[in-house]
Design goal:
Length: about 350
């Protein structure tokens, strides 16, 4: 009688280099996120709708470039737009001329997009270590670092072409703005205050706007510039509080890490200093009662932000950061109405 056949053990297969199982199904544990965790759902839907008629291969790549330049998160462009519009209206003393208004509005979106591209290039080794940013195009491998540099260069050239339609002083100032935009992403390696560099980069459109409209940069422009630096430190610290633990592990630096447990009182002091600076702006620009009402509303909005982040919850800090869009809009409306009722 022959012995019973031995039960054949299944052969173990080596994992596929492509990250797929033998049946072709993706291995979920190794999949990288397709989109950053903080993408705006509404903005992403709009981008998908705009690109829906492109062939699939081009549609995905175009969307990756748009995500690289943060078109899926327009809040950053708005936070750059409001101070630029503050400056344009104050420089003109009324509704600004259409030419600088169009140039600077387009320039805001171009420079913000360029800054995001160079930021992701600089953070290409850091972003994969942070949950919120692991889905960014470079971090997830959908865009190469070389492609990001090309996008940065193209946007920078476009922004410079826009500036050529202004005057000599504005063109000269634009070189400083480009240097600040390129320096910010790398500053977080060397200082705990990259938010100050961000504020200077975001706010450099202020002296440029005054130069384009009036041909000079008066003291009120520099007051407004200082105010914008303070505001940028406030909202970007709220933003950095979301990633504080991940940034500490990855070795990145930020004001959120620098302030530590004193972050809330320090933010309160910075908010008060910003409001005081904007009060001086209103006095020097001889703005009327609508501006002062706007400033009071801005103070209330800051109070609401501090209440939101009182427990330092990540979602609440991100909400407070986004809430600054309403503060910028409020001050712009105050400036516009104050100039209109003169």
């Amino acid at each position: 009688m022959s012995p019973p056949p031995r039960k054949r053990q299944p052969r173990k297969t080596a994992p596929s280099p492509s990250g797929r199982s033998r049946a072709g199904a993706p291995r979920v544990a190794e999949q990288k996120p397709r989109r950053p965790a903080d993408s705006s759902t509404r903005a992403t839907r709009v981008l998908d709708w705009l690109l829906q008629n492109l062939p699939p291969r081009y549609r995905e790549k175009a969307l990756d470039y748009l995500v690289l330049t943060r078109m899926d998160r327009p809040i950053g462009a708005l936070l750059l737009l409001w101070p630029t519009w503050w400056a344009l209206w104050l420089a003109a003393g009324d509704f600004p001329p259409w030419k600088p208004l169009i140039i600077f509005t387009l320039g805001v979106f171009a420079m913000r997009a360029a800054g995001c591209a160079i930021n992701d290039y600089a953070d290409r080794k850091l972003d994969p270590q942070v949950a919120r940013t692991a889905g960014r195009p470079i971090a997830s491998g959908r865009v190469t670092p070389r492609e990001a540099l090309i996008v940065f260069a193209v946007l920078l050239v476009f922004a410079f072409l826009l500036v050529l339609f202004t005057n000599a002083l504005t063109i000269k100032l634009s070189f400083i703005g480009a240097a600040l935009a390129a320096a910010y992403p790398f500053s977080k390696r060397y200082t705990h205050m990259p938010q100050v560099v961000l504020g200077a980069a975001f706010g450099w459109s202020i002296p440029m706007a005054f130069a384009a409209v009036g041909g000079n940069v008066p003291p009120v422009a520099w007051l407004l510039f200082i105010g914008n630096i303070l505001w940028s430190v406030i909202y970007d610290t709220e933003y950095a509080m979301v990633d504080r633990e991940d940034d500490i592990k990855a070795g990145a630096k930020s004001t959120a890490i620098l302030f530590g447990d004193a972050d809330l009182p320090i933010l309160g002091v910075l908010m008060g200093t910003f409001l005081l600076t904007m009060l001086f702006v209103g006095q020097r620009a001889t703005l009327g009662w609508p501006y002062w009402i706007g400033l009071l509303i801005a103070a209330a909005l800051f109070g609401y932000q501090l209440w939101l982040i009182r427990h330092r919850a990540k979602d609440a800090c991100l909400t407070a950061f986004r809430h600054n869009n309403w503060l910028g809009l409020t001050l712009w409306i105050g400036i516009v109405l104050a100039l209109a009722v003169r």
